[in-house]
Design a protein that fits this description.
heterodimer; A: 319 residues; 2 domains; 15 helices; B: OB fold (Dihydrolipoamide Acetyltransferase, E2P); Rossmann fold; Ubiquitin-like (UB roll); four-stranded antiparallel β-sheet; 18% strand
Chain lengths: 319, 430
Amino acid sequence: MPEKRKLVVSFAPFWHNGNRVTDRSLQILLAATPAALFGVYRFGFSALAVLALSVSSAVLWELAFTRVAKRPVSVGDGTAAVIGLMFGMMLPASLPWWAVITGTFIAIVVARQIYGGIGSNPFNPAAVAVAILMLAWKQRMDFDAALVNYAFDFSAAFPLSAVKAFGTGAIKELSYVDLFIGRQVGGIGSVCGVALLAGGIYLILRGVIRWEIPVSFLAGVAITAAVFHAADPLKFASPAFHLLTGLTLFGAFFLSTEDASSPVNFVPMLIFGAVAGAIAVFIRNIGVFAEGLVFAILVGNLIQPLLDKIRPNALGKVK
Amino acid sequence: MTMMRSKTFFGMGQPRLEYTPVPARIDRPESIRPAGRVTLLHPRPPEANAIPSVKVGETVKSGQKLSLYGKGDYVTSSVSGAVSALEPFPGSFVRNFTAISITPAPEEVPDDGLRAVHQDPSLASALDFLDAAPGMPGLQRLNDADRPLKTLVVCGVDQDLLVFTQQYVLGARGHDIQNGIRALQKISGIGEVVILTRREAVQGYGGHSVGRVMGVDHRYPSAKPQLVMANLFGREVPAGRTCEDLGYCFMSAEAVASIGAAFSTGRVPVNKLITVIPKDGVPHLVETPVGTPVGDILNRFGAAVGAGDRIVAGGPMQGTALFSLDYPVQPDTDALLVLDAAAAANISDYPCINCGECIRVCPARIQINLLVRYLEAGKYADAEESYDLNSCVECGLCSYVCVSKIPILQYIVLAKHELARMRSTEPLNA
C-alpha cells in the first residue's frame, strides 16, 4: 500500500485548450500594432505621445478603480491596455493630454468598470469615450481643424468631411489605392487600410474575433453606400470610398468585434454587423457628423440583447 | 508529456478532439490482482437501527451477492475471502455508501447461486445476480412496465477521450456479447438491437447476425447517448427526459458481455477491464477484480504519484477525481488517468467575457454565455426554464474551451443536482 499523499480533487474536465484572456489581449495589441505604427510614421511624435498616454492612462485608471472599489486587480489581463490603444487609434494626433486622459477615464471607469468590469460592459468602451469627446470637444475631434498645422504630400482634407460639404466632386482626385495605403487624414491608427485589414484577418485566423461581424459590417457599409451612390452619385460617395475612409476598417475589425458588447450566435452576428455598418453610412450621408461610425457601433451594442434572443433551438428543447 | 491538448495556432476552427481507438500493440489485458484487500461500495449508507446481513469475519465467495440491508440493492463480491470491515463511505453529490472490505483467501471459491438457474435466463435471475456486474448493466431499467423498451443499444464505443475499454470488449468478446444480446432479448422482450462501433469498424465487425451495426463519428462527443439518438436514430430526447423514455436502452458492451458470460457459464463475472493511462501517457489495458484499490493498479506501472497530482476515474473530459489511492475500482470504472499537478487544468474566478467559444463547441446548442450567468447567481430554476439547462449532455467541451476558465460543467451538474434535490424535498416542505 503506497504511503498517504495528498491528491488534488477537482471537477471534470481535466483538460483545457490553454486559451487565456491575456493571450487574446496580446493578440489584439499585436494585430493593431502595424496600423498604430503607421499612424506614428504619418503623424509624428505627437501621435506616439497620444497613443502612449492613452494606453498608460487606461491601465492606470483600471488599476486605480479596482483598488478603490476593492476589486481583484485586473490590469494583468491586458484588456485595459487594449481599450486604451483602441481609443488612442481613433484620435487626431493633436489631441491635448487632458482630453486623452478624460477619454480613457470615460472608457475604463464609466463605460466598463461601473457596469461590472470585464465582460459586463454593454457598450464598446473605446467607442463610448470617442462619442463623448466628439460631443464635448467638437473642434478638437474634427480632423480638419485638429490637423491644420500638418503639412502632407496629399490632400490634407478629411475625406468624409470633404464629400459631406462639397459632394463627390471634392474627392474625385483621391485614388482608392492612396486611401488604402494610408495617404489620407484621419485618426492615428485608422488611416492605413492595408494594415488594419492585415490585423483583422490575423485576428480572424487566430480565432480571437468572429469573422461574421466584420464581414457583415463591411457588407452593411458597402450595400448602404451603393444604394445612396446609385440614388445620387454627385452627392454620395461610392461604396469603395466609404470602405477605405474614416473608421470603417478599424470599426469593422477592432470596434464591432469587442466581445462583451457583440452577439455570439450566427444570425445575430450578421444582423449586428449589417445594422451597425448601414447606420454608419446613414450618419455619414444624411446625419450631422461627417464620421459618426462610433455612434453606429453604439446603436449595434444597444440592440445586442434583443439580437441574442434569436438563437438556435437547444437539443431536445421542449417548445 | 503534457496531457493537455492545445488549440492550434490558427484557432478559428473548433477543437478536434477525437476518441482513441484500441492501440495496435494491445492484444490482451494485463491481469492485476489486489495486493491486499478489496473494497466494494454498497449503494446504501449504514443505517443506525438496521443490522447488516453480512458481518465482519464472515467468509464470502467470489460472485456472491452481498445485500447488506435486504432492500434489493447489492454488490457482488469479486473475490473469495473474509469480510474485514464495514464502514460508511462518502461519495460525491451526497451519495453515501457502505464500504465492504474483503481480504482475499488464497483459494478462489465461486458462488453457485446463479448456476442453478442460468440455463433458463429470466429477468428475475438477472436482477438477482447481475445488477452489479462489471460494466454496470442497469437492469432495473428493464423492469419498468410503465416504460417499455423497444431497442437495445450496445455501446461498443467509449464515452470519453483516451479510453478504449468498451471498444476492446466489442472486438475481443464477440461471443459473450452475442450471448448477452440473446439473453437480454429473451428476458426483456426487446426486439431491435443496435450495436455501436467506430465508424470505420462497421464493415469489419462480425456482429451483424444479432443486431444492426452502426458507426459513431470519431469526433468527441458523438458517442453521448443523447447525440447518438439525435444523429443516428433521428430522435431528439426532449430536454429533461431520458433515452429510456423513448424506448431506447443504452448498455455498455462490457455489461452485455457480462450478462452473456454469466448465463452461459453460470458464474457471475467479477473482473473489470480498465484503460490505465499513467503520467507518461502510454496507455495499458488492465483486467482486475472490482474493488481493487486504484493504488494497486498504478503501482504495477511504477506510476509515481506525487502530492498535488490528480487521479481520475474515467477520462479527461468527464471523469471523477479521486481523493485517495485506496479508492476501489467500480463496476463502471472504464479508465484510470494520472495527471501531473502541472498538466491538469485549473479554474479561475474570472467572469464570462462573452467570447462565444463555448457556443461554437456546444453539441446541444445551448446559450452557455447566458446560462452561466444564471448558474453563477444560483438561479437554477430560471436556468432550467429559459436557458436549456436540461439539454446539456455534460460533455465538458464548454469548460475545455473557456478562456475565463469558468467551471461551467461543474455549475451545470451542481444545478441539476440542486434542482433534483429541491424537487425531492418539496412535498415534505409543502
